[in-house]
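Lecture 7, part 2: worked example. A protein chain together with 2-acetamido-2-deoxy-beta-D-glucopyranose.
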Amino acid sequence: MTHHKRYSQLPWKLAKLSVFLYASIFFSVIYLCLNSNNCNFFAILPKIKNQENTVLNLMEGSAVTAKQFHKSDKGNKIIFHKSKDSSIQKFISNRKKEKLSRTVTQLANEETTDSASNSSIYPHPFQFLINEKDKCKKKTPFLVLLISTKADEKQHREAIRKTWGNESVVPGIKILCLFMLGFSDKDQNENILQESRKYHDIIQQDFLDTYKNLTLKTMMGIKWIATYCNGTSFIMKTDSNVFVNTIYLIQEVLRPIKSPSQYFFTGCLMKNYEPNRNPDSKWYMPKELYPSDRYPDFCSGTGYVFSRAVVPKILSASLKVKYVHLEDIYVALCLERQGITISPPLKQSFFNIYRVPFVTCVYSNIITSHGIDPTEQITFWQTLQKKKHMCHK
Ligand SMILES: *[C@@H]1O[C@H](CO)[C@@H](O)[C@H](O)[C@H]1NC(C)=O
Ligand SMILES: *[C@@H]1O[C@H](CO)[C@@H](O)[C@H](O)[C@H]1NC(C)=O
Ligand SMILES: *[C@@H]1O[C@H](CO)[C@@H](O)[C@H](O)[C@H]1NC(C)=O
Ligand SMILES: *[C@@H]1O[C@H](CO)[C@@H](O)[C@H](O)[C@H]1NC(C)=O
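Predicted complex, written out as structure tokens:
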């Protein structure tokens, strides 16, 4: 009897359960069908990701579903539109609106980063404030020294003019010495103008002279060579606190090179360096700016030397390579893009990114030493010229 009762109650319970199940399945199917537009929507995403005007392409690209969307008057938000107004549709439409606007915001963000990286490509927009257009015209130089310097480093410049930057330092070989500056402020610029009138060895463009703009400074120099001095055989880029044994550089490295119309690039070769991700570091490189875990081989910006053939190559690559503020890395990225390999120096000891303690017969066989102040430039140079004949080669 009890059995019987139990068994007779079961079908009724089952019936209730199945009605509930059928109902849930029914509503789930309806929900999924209505929502399937989203699938279309996501399917077209990868295709349009790279396109320029993402929001507009989104509208066109999803023409099937686009009927249900329209652009609202306020801003670029896309509003989901439905003809019917039942509460379940409202619920669904709200869900879609959320999803959609989230995706559109994401896309908009991607688009801004895209266009930011696009605009971060160096477009050469700066004008010369001080130029030396004719510096190269009289006689084609063998070597142009491009020295990165700041407005308040007049002493550094004076010392370099008197020492390794003296344009008649090697008899019979024409050297040009150019100091590269950005703009800092009006008062200082008066002094710079005066200095320029006196020595005619300054070039300056109208970008702000800051650490993060050092790449602009180097590119100014390279552009100057391309525009006003494309016949020079070699170019050296260095800094105002570097001692450069120009005589040794020319004798030992540059004169033996037969053809400056071949690609040649050398300096203190830095291999397998990782970007510095410490925000407090001078060499900090944000991951957003340079995502890769390795730098290409590069030559320290304290001193690198290259042949004239490299100039147009760096210049054209710079129209495509994303701007990074570390100028030596940037130049290396340009070289990498052009498939130009860096030549290691004949001797490891030639280019030094640190300060080499002064010993005459050491300095007579190196090319660069870093961290040298103006008075040292003069004493080191004078001592070297006086005593180097006593050193073995
Ligand atoms: C920058 O983007 C514009 C359009 O967005 C494109 O035409 C141009 O080629 C891009 N520039 C570079 C250097 O990629
Ligand atoms: C550069 O060197 C030459 C020859 O040694 C010398 O006559 C001239 O005074 C030097 N220039 C400067 C600015 O010291
Ligand atoms: C670089 O120079 C440009 C042009 O003068 C300036 O707008 C920008 O702020 C400078 N960038 C930095 C990081 O100093
Ligand atoms: C260098 O400049 C001269 C004169 O402006 C020009 O005729 C020549 O084509 C240029 N050479 C290169 C390699 O750009």
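Residues 1-8, 33-92, 94-117 have pLDDT under 50 and may be disordered. The pocket of 2-acetamido-2-deoxy-beta-D-glucopyranose (ligand 3) is lined by residues 207-208, 210, 212-213 (CB under 6 Å). Keep this in mind for problem set question 3.
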